[in-house]
Amino acid sequence: MDWGMKNRLSRIIKPKNGRCVMLAVDHGYFLGPTEKLEVPQRTIEPLLPYVDSVMLTRGVLRTSVNPISNVPIVLRVSGGTSIIGEDLSKETIVTSIEDSIRLNVACLALSIFVGSKYEHQTLANLSTLVDNGERYGIPILAVTAVGKELVRDARYLGLACRIAGELGAHVVKTYYCEKFEKVIEGCPVPVIIAGGKKLQKEIEVLELTFNAIRDGASGVDMGRNIWQSDNPIAMIKAVKSIVHENFSIKEASDLLEMEKKIEDKSTVVIR
Ligand code: 5RP
Q: For the chain, what is the radius of gyration of the CA atoms?
């Protein structure tokens, strides 16, 4: 592997333990102003000190992240669809490799929709992106998106992750599921998990993170369960404690409660 590729990957997945805490804030690329991400800068800025990297689009990067910030950027470069459009799987690559280099990104991210109407198109997108990434030493994160009608089980997610790895993705993002270790076993590159829709109880977020790490995930690329929480800083710290410090669910939950008190105290209420 080339020096540049290794260097960028090491900024995303920490070499000391092979783990990663990525903050996902790319939802607007097809969902528009998602709840609690309406003003991206407001959501993103307070969380940056606690994450290893941030995943977002170039529009949000340029408008909402201070360029002197040193946080590694995972740039989402697939899109071209909307939640009210014909088919979410009809994605294309929407950002050039030149602009990604200009933005000094550490990684490029794109979705693949295995089993969907536009499966071939999205897998071809991945292959093109891997070729471009290899040319310039930029790793590729493949996001295994699931169509409405597909079940998020180990068989399906294992298929999607393996295909992503075979096509040259350097990291794969998927969902946690039963028999997750089978998904890990079948994927030749590190796998990280999305959080999915906001879970009802905070403890469920910690359980999800703990179980995924226990079963072989290299980390998280989490969004809504962090910034839709009433205490996003406390939540990211608790999730990070599991990923990077091998905290148990109980230890992370205790940390969460302690950090919530600190966060609540420091929130200034303007009347
Ligand atoms: C959307 C994405 C999101 O970044 C991903 O789903 C992670 O966010 P969340 O934890 O909110 O699910 O890639 O396609």
A: 18
CB of residue 224 inside a 6 A radius of ligand 1: yes
Give the DSSP H/E element, type plus range, for residue 7. Answer: helix 3-12
Q: Catalytic: 173?
A: yes
User: The tokens of 198 are what?
Assistant: 């906001």
Mutate to test the pocket of ligand 1, among 74, 171, 221, 226 (most ligand atoms within 8 A of CB): 221
Q: Read off the pLDDT of residues 154-174 as tens digits, 9 standing for 90 and up.
A: 999 999 999 999 999 999 999
Q: Is the CB of 24 under 6 A from ligand 1?
A: yes
Q: Is 93 helix (H, G, I), strand (E, B) or coil?
A: strand
Closest CA to 169 of 218, 206, 241, 236: 218
pLDDT tens digits, residue range 30-78? 999 999 999 999 999 999 999 999 999 999 999 999 999 999 999 999 9
Does ligand 1 lie within 6 Å of residue 111's CB atom? yes
Given the residues 14, 173, 197, 265, the one annotated as active site: 173
The residue extents of the domains of the chain are: 3-229
- Return the biggest CA–CA distance within the chain: 56
Tell me which fold the domain 3-229 belongs to: TIM Barrel (3.20.20)
Strands 20-24 and 53-56: parallel
